[in-house]
Amino acid sequence: MKIQVVGVVGAGVMGIGVAQNLAQTSHQVILVDISEEILDKAKKEIKNNIRFQGFFNKNEKAENPDNILHRIKFSTNYKFLESAEFVIENATEKWDIKKEIYAQLDAICPPETVFAANTSAISITRIGSATKRADKIIGMHFMNPVPMKPMVEMIRGYHTSDETISTAKELLAQMGKEGILVNDSPGFVSNRVLMLTINEAIFLIQDQVASVSEVDRIFKTCFGHKMGPLETADLIGLDTILFSIEVLYESFNDSKYRPCPLLKKMVDAGLYGRKSGQGFYTYNRAI
Fold this sequence. Notes:
It holds the Pfam family 3HCDH. This protein is of the alpha/beta class and about 290 residues long. Helices cover about 45% and strands about 15% of the residues. The strands form 2 sheets. It has an 8-stranded mixed beta sheet with strand order 3-2-1-4-5-6-7-8. It has a two-stranded antiparallel sheet with strand order 9-10.
């Protein structure tokens, strides 16, 4: 049975992508964030993204962006999520924030509603412990940009039921995606490897081993990567990178996850990457 109504919590880069993808696959979406200003910005970005996507898919008949946007309800009120059959949470990688969000969701949503955490590193089992429905909590780690990435890293928490996994896979199929199911561990598979790679690449810049463009070029030309680690960092957001590596450092108590001081300095300076207009690159110009 098709899932009709999906809640999306968080209108940042990932939340915008998830909401857009859902609306483009004929789902009714309830996008929730803390301010009207954030939601207004999200609405404009989704509209621009749809038009941009249509520009590159000229051979396909594109749906009117306004029709797609009409399927998304933008709100600061969690109360509207009471009608959601499935909720995808995309809040920042801070446990105190996530814990509060799940307490609200647990109180508002029907008992049968599945909650999916679109998290980079936080334990799905820990998230489940913040609710009264641990069997209905699953990790769904989407890749950016969401509408263009066909694969999702799915994470089974300790209590996640087979029924929840089946429901999550069905929703992904409706979105035109597949899921690879892995077990719960901080950082899971993708970010346990990727965050170390990015963090070490930033150490290379700090230690003046190579320039930004040289580091990225080595990965693209020697290994065939579409993007280098520092370009990837700018795409994800350096603040998100720092949050994720700090979670890994705290979780494993292993010095190999120590955040690079240069990464901390850039985040303190507001150099978050693409979303702030400045990171390791400024409009493709290395700093």
